[in-house]
Design brief:
Keywords: Membrane, Transmembrane, Transmembrane helix. This protein is an alpha+beta fold and about 180 residues long. It folds into 2 domains: about 50 residues, no CATH class; about 110 residues, Immunoglobulins (Immunoglobulin-like), CATH 2.60.40.10. Helix content is about 20%, strand content about 40%. The protein has 2 helices and 14 strands; from the N terminus they run αββββββββββββββα. A hairpin with a 6-residue loop joins strand 13 and strand 14. The longest helix is centred in the first third of the chain and has 17 residues. The chain is rod-shaped, with a radius of gyration of 29 Å.
Length: about 180
């Protein structure tokens, strides 16, 4: 009997010591709603998530023209368990002939599993040889340490000249050539 008690006591002590290193938690799968046990992640509202507050960010630009205000779409997908609000900031990494206007497009709320779009406006002031790079930084208001970035890269070949960018000599040549061809016809 004494051996049995010693075995039980040692077994309990062993389980208590080992249990924290193999800690698992059980909650429901967010897609199938079946109970499962996990080694990583968090249990939020009784559902498993990698993080309770989490999101993804990506961007897509529009057709850019010199002097033409163009919205750049910054997409935010809330992949966490709770609704969250996000703030948008930007930094121009390369280039100097660009204006970024985020007024009215710097804060948005997104429900869980929802996707919303912020549309800051980009204005290219003049043709440049070097590409323009703008980094958009999106941060969570619920978790101040959680942020994601996306970079928009605008190459010099991606946008067309506007009329004000044509050299005066080239404009005069086009008018003269058009006049010559018009008189021959």
């Amino acid at each position: 009997m004494r051996r049995c008690k010693n075995f039980i006591v040692l077994s309990v002590i062993f389980i208590i010591l080992i249990k924290p290193s193999f800690a698992v938690f059980c909650c429901r799968d967010p897609e199938t709603y079946q109970s499962r046990c996990y080694n990583t992640g968090q249990c939020c509202n009784n559902l498993w998530y990698q993080l309770c507050i989490n999101f993804e960010v990506w961007s897509r630009g529009g057709e850019l023209g010199i002097g033409k205000p163009t919205p750049v779409n910054v997409y935010i997908r809330n992949i966490g368990a709770y609704p969250d609000e996000y703030n948008l900031n930007y930094k121009i990494i390369k280039g100097h002939n660009v204006i970024v206007d985020t007024r009215g497009h710097d804060k948005i709320s997104v429900d869980p599993n929802g996707v919303r779009v912020l549309r800051p406006t980009v204005i290219i002031l003049a043709q440049t040889i070097e590409p323009i790079e703008i980094e958009f930084n999106v941060s969570s208001t619920q978790n101040k340490t959680l942020w994601r970035t996306t970079t928009v890269r605008i190459s010099a070949e991606e946008y067309l000249y506007s009329m004000s960018e044509f050299p005066t000599f080239l404009l005069i040549m086009i008018i003269l050539l058009a006049n010559i061809f018009y008189r021959k016809v």
